[in-house]
Write a structure and sequence with these properties.
Layout lengths: L8 H9 L3 H13 L7 H12 L24 H38 L6 H5 L3 E5 L4 E5 H26 L3
Antiparallel strand pairs: 1-2
Amino acid sequence: MAVLDTRLLPLIETLTVAGADWLAFEILDGLQLGRALEETQNTLHDTRHAVRSAERPMRRSEERAEPPPTAVPILGNEQIQWAADYVGKRMSEVVSMLQATLIQLDGIVAGASNADVAPPASATKGEITLVLQTQEEAIDIRRAQAADAMAVVPKLQEALRAWVLSTRGRP
């Protein structure tokens, strides 16, 4: 288990203030788990060959059970880089999924308007509004807002790169 680099605190605080505390928790969990070791190239090659040829040197019940490889802790500057990369990637994924959801909802509504079923009132306006309800508030999201968010993701990633560069030099 890695010790959290205190230089990450401003990023975690910023995420929390921005309402992305879920992402701050994901960062903390990822750093605690560390970097999982991957299979060696030889092992991957042997597995591919066995699958393609439908061969197994021995039955599964005869194979020796081995624990998964231990994870390598993420430390120091690597924590800073990992966290910034993770935030950029997750925000991009979230916005992409949001856009895909709105596109699918548009398709559903368009299909309903072509059927014998009466379309929802929002279908007559030609725009879907996705409402995300939290305990404190309801958030309305439209396709234009999702597109605007996707356009800002590269700026976020650039700001994260700048943060990494400025943070790495500090103790």
